[in-house]
Amino acid sequence: MFTSQGPTLRELAVQALTSVERGYDLLAPKFDETPFRTPVRMLDAVEEALAEHGGSFGSGLDLCCGTGAALPLLRRLCRDRVTGVDLSAGMLRQAALSLPEGADLVRADALALPEALTASYDLAVSFGAFGHFLPTQRPALFSGVHRALRPGGVFAFPIGAPIPPTSPLWWAVAGFDAAMRVRNAVWRPPFVMYYRSFPWGPVRAELDAAGFTVGTVPLEHFGRRPDGTPRWRLVLARKDRRAPAGDPPGGL
After folding, report:
1. Which of 65, 103, 110, 244 has the most CB atoms in a 10 Å sphere around its CB?
2. pLDDT at residue 248 tops 70
C-alpha cells in the first residue's frame, strides 16, 4: 500500500488532526508514494473512454488536481489550455515539478472557482476528491463546474459500483467513515474525508439540477460484477449547448 518513501504513521496522524488544506500541504511531498494517488490503470481507462466517446477537446480542467496525476491525460486529450485547480498550495508545488507543457495551475476552492475560469473549458475531470465534500456542498460544487464549462462541455469522473455489505471492504470503509465522524465531532478544525458519502442516485439528481445531461459508459478495464453490471463507470455530464437567454456571447 505505502512505499518505503511514503509517510510514516505519525505523519499521517498529524495530517488527520489538521484541516484538509493543511493536511494535504503536509502530505504533499510524499503523496505520490501513497495509495491515495489515482492509479495509472484508472487514468488510462478514463482516457481511453473519453477518447472513444468524446474525441478531442479544446481546453481542459482538472478539479482538485492534487499533485497533477491527471494533467498529462488532459494534455493528450485537449488541444488548448489545460488547468489544474486545487486548494492545497503544497500539492500544487508538487504538481509544478512535473507540469506538462501547456498546462497551468490555479490555487482555488472548488466550491468557489474564480470568475476568470467561467465558460473557459470544454472538458472537466476529477479523481478521488468527492469524499472531501459534504452532501450539502455538492450542489455548489456541480454548479461551479457547470459555470466553468462552455456550452457543450463535459464533466467526467469515474464512479464505482456499490460495495456489498458482505465484502470486507464495505466494513473497512464504513469503519473509516465512522472514525472520521467521531474525530470531527470532538476535534477542530474538521477534516472532511468520507468514502461512503457519494451515492450515485442523489449525485445524478444533483447533476441534473445543476443543468447537466447525464450519462455513463462502462470502464471495461475493471471487469463486471457477478450480476453483469460494470465495476466502474465513467460519468459523462454534458452542459447544454445552448447558452441561457440573455447571457453575453461566449459566457455564462
Report:
1. 65
2. no
